[in-house]
Design goal:
A: 512 residues; B: alpha+beta; 4-stranded mixed beta sheet; two-stranded antiparallel ribbon; autophagy (chain B)
Chain lengths: 512, 224
């Protein structure tokens, strides 16, 4: 067996490593989008599914990955890392995990590149799919929305783990030996979420089902190289935009069952102009990643606030409808839990059931969208400074919106939680604001809201009264006291009964 | 060649049995399934594509990935459902408050053709034994804690599974077209797992198997 790789094997191996790196990034980012991923199995090979796995390619993510790699491949001393972090609406950020694709010097010269290495890389990707759902950041990413978003960053070179805080844990996804080195895929994740618990939840915790939207004017002003993990895939008719980009290489996997020397592995390069990914889900496009940088420049527009709402999966809705629609969250966009006042444009798009085309997406970013509970930009209102959960929806915001021709009366969203429904009905009654115009609510006091008489929320109330204290009459002290008394008085009682024994006997006779 | 044997152990509440078993069995099968093979001339073959699907558990704070194959899912759900029914039947027979223990075995095997009159041999090459300890919980607060704890435990088990799989130990050689049914389960339309079988065993808290317990119960009843 030659110790050096044949040129064909070397070429194949480089290609495998390159596409493995790209697919790894796709799997990680897609796992942090906040939605359930669903791709279809296909019995006939399509030729574009690397490693025989249906992993969709989000073009922007591929672009970022290629930019980070800059024509190089992960190698010894050159690791590819995907950093996942969390950014709150107040601008605080925290690194959650770092996924590292590394290579060490340990070589496996005897391994078959085009067969064994390929299959093991496929297995490693499956392991990555499984492990990405197990780390703590997965649950956080599923709940991202108004309070925080998940961002990703790809870099190449030295692994940096200092941002993960003390006591971070590492989980190894797997290793694959190759003739040029051993590929290792691992994840280091933060265990200390103290920042989250003290800062994030200092203000009034949201009541179940309601998410308070109080974006400040520039929530993501310093995104820099970070990218949000929320996308809406272009509609499938937009062939030119979807799926594989133009110059992606195609892998047609063809293996041989004959002895190794006759191994045939056909890899061909093809230019794909348009390819409709056969997927069952619709991921969301990079709306805000494109839009934010533009939106920052137009603070003058009244009432216009970059709105994460239409892009985010709906949490309450998801909780309720997740079983029903595991693969098509788009249908529920109008029922976003904040009861957001999406303008008719967004609503009608969503009710089509299709995901937004890139053209519309670009238009969207320049259209003002005002959420129901969004503050007028320029006034930094934090709920910490207000007693009532919904005091942020000040009448002045309503006035501006009333005059604003761009704000369309939103559709009443499907009730995503019973509390949500009651909110709207009560709000419209108490505040005097017609429910059809917008969802601004004033002076609203739902059950268990902050109150002078009983200052606690529903969750606290439930917990407190779940374990009520013992009844006084059943306490041990009382019973033991009475028993002692009983024992003391027994001799006297016995004496009395003995005296009157004849009476008792007569009584018993009458009964018989 | 020795059969590789791995044991996983979980403690769950009665209504979590289904989902916990599904999560672990599907995670293993995800790694032990390939796309459909299409054999061509000259001894080459191509492999179909395996899709994946995220599944959220209702009674456990956990999500897992399984192969996108409704047929395979149906087969696994049926087996897991039978296991759960047996677990529940035992608990009912023993009365409330008894914890039960069961074991599901997922065995991957190869068929070896034998000459007549002997039947084909099934040679296992990997066996996963998942021991389940079914507990009874008293109130909602305990159930809530159990949801989270079992979710964490299942996460650890998934990491264990991945660790074992990535040791890249023995896997059957890729078969020729005539031998493919001896290595893979080719009955499904969209994916091709390695040949596997699922068996289970239920025991009560004393460690005796169900059959012994039932025999004892019947004997006691007849003795009256």
């Amino acid at each position: 067996m030659d110790s050096d790789l044949s040129p064909q094997d070397k070429k194949d191996l480089d290609k495998f490593i390159k596409f493995f790196a790209l697919k790894t990034v796709q799997v990680i980012v897609q796992a942090r989008l906040g939605e359930k991923i669903c791709t279809r199995s296909s019995s006939s090979p399509t030729g574009s599914d690397w490693f025989n796995l249906a992993i969709k390619d989000i073009p922007e993510v591929t672009h970022e990955a290629k930019k980070a790699l800059a024509g190089q491949l992960p190698g010894i001393g050159r690791s590819m890392c995907v950093e996942i972090s969390l950014k709150t609406s107040e601008g605080d950020s925290m690194e959650l995990e770092t996924w590292c694709l590394e290579m060490n010097e340990k070589c496996d010269k005897d391994i078959k590149v085009s067969y064994t290495v390929y299959n093991r890389l496929s297995l490693l990707l499956k392991s990555l799919l499984a492990i990405t759902r197990v780390t703590p950041a997965y649950k956080l990413s599923r709940k991202q929305g108004h309070d925080y978003v998940i961002l990703y960053r790809i870099y190449f070179g030295e692994v940096q783990l200092t941002g993960l805080g003390e006591g971070f844990q590492t989980v190894r996804v797997g290793v694959v030996g190759t003739p040029v080195g051993t590929i290792t895929l691992s994840c280091a994740y933060r265990t200390n979420l103290a920042f989250m618990s003290t800062r994030q939840f200092e203000r009034t915790a949201p009541i179940m089902g309601i998410i308070i939207d109080h974006f400040v004017e520039r929530p993501f002003g310093n995104m820099g190289h970070m990218h949000p993990c929320n996308y809406r895939a272009p509609a499938e008719e937009e062939g030119g935009y979807t799926g594989v980009e133009d110059s992606q290489e195609v892998c047609t996997t063809s293996f041989s069952t004959s002895p190794p020397s006759q191994c045939v592995s056909a890899l061909s390069t093809a230019h794909l102009k348009s390819l409709k990914p056969a997927v069952m889900d619709t991921l969301k496009v990079p709306v805000m990643s494109l839009g934010f940088s533009h939106q920052m420049g137009i603070p003058g527009k009244e009432g216009g606030v970059p709105q994460q709402v239409p892009v985010q999966p709906c949490h309450a809705a998801q909780a309720e409808h997740a079983r029903a629609s595991s693969c098509l969250p788009n249908d529920h966009v109008p029922a976003v839990p904040s009861g957001s006042g999406e303008d008719a444009e967004a609503s009608s798009r969503s009710t089509d059931g299709k995901s937004v085309s890139p053209r519309d997406v670009m238009e969207t970013t320049f259209t003002r969208k005002v959420g129901a509970f969004v503050n007028k930009p320029g006034t930094q209102v934090t709920t910490a400074s207000l007693d009532l959960p919904f005091a942020a929806f000040a009448p002045r915001a309503y006035d501006i919106e009333e005059n604003d021709p761009m704000v369309q009366p939103p559709e009443s969203p499907a009730t995503s939680s019973p509390l949500q429904g009651s909110l709207h009905s009560q709000g419209s009654g108490e505040s005097g604001v017609p429910a059809q115009d917008d969802f601004v609510m004033v002076d609203f006091k739902p059950a268990f809201s902050k109150d002078d008489l009983l200052p606690m929320d529903l969750g606290t109330f439930y917990r407190e009264f779940q374990n009520p204290p013992q009844l006084a009459s059943l306490t041990i002290d009382v019973s033991s006291q009475s028993m002692a008394e009983d024992l003391d008085s027994l001799p006297e009682k016995l004496a009395v009964y003995e005296k009157n024994i004849d009476e008792f006997d007569a009584f018993v006779d009458t009964l018989q | 060649m020795n059969c590789r044997s791995e044991v996983l152990e979980v403690s769950v509440e009665g209504r979590q049995v289904d989902e916990a078993m599904l999560a672990l069995v599907h995670t293993i099968l995800l790694h032990r399934s390939t796309g459909k093979f299409h054999y061509k001339k000259e001894g080459t073959y191509s492999i179909g594509t395996v899709g994946t699907q995220d599944i959220d558990c209702d009674f456990i704070d956990f999500s897992f990935v399984r192969v996108s194959s409704d047929e395979l899912d149906r087969v696994i759900r049926k087996a897991v459902g039978e296991f759960k029914d047996l677990c529940c039947a035992l608990q009912d027979a023993m009365g409330n408050g008894t914890d039960g223990m069961g074991q599901i075995s997922l065995e991957f095997y190869q068929k070896k053709k034998s000459r007549w009159p002997f039947s084909d041999e099934c040679i296992p090459w990997e066996v996963w034994s998942i021991k389940v300890n079914v507990v009874n919980l008293a109130n909602e607060q305990e159930r809530q804690i159990c949801r989270e704890k079992v979710g964490e435990k299942l996460g650890e088990k998934v990491i264990n599974i991945v660790e074992v799989i990535n040791r890249h130990e023995y896997l059957p050689k890729m078969p020729t077209q005539s031998e493919v049914d001896n290595v893979f389960d080719t009955s499904l339309k969209d994916v091709q797992p390695y040949l596997y079988k699922i068996t289970f065993q239920i025991t009560d808290t004393l460690g005796t198997s169900v059959s012994t317990t039932m025999r004892r119960l019947i004997k006691d009843t007849l003795a009256l």
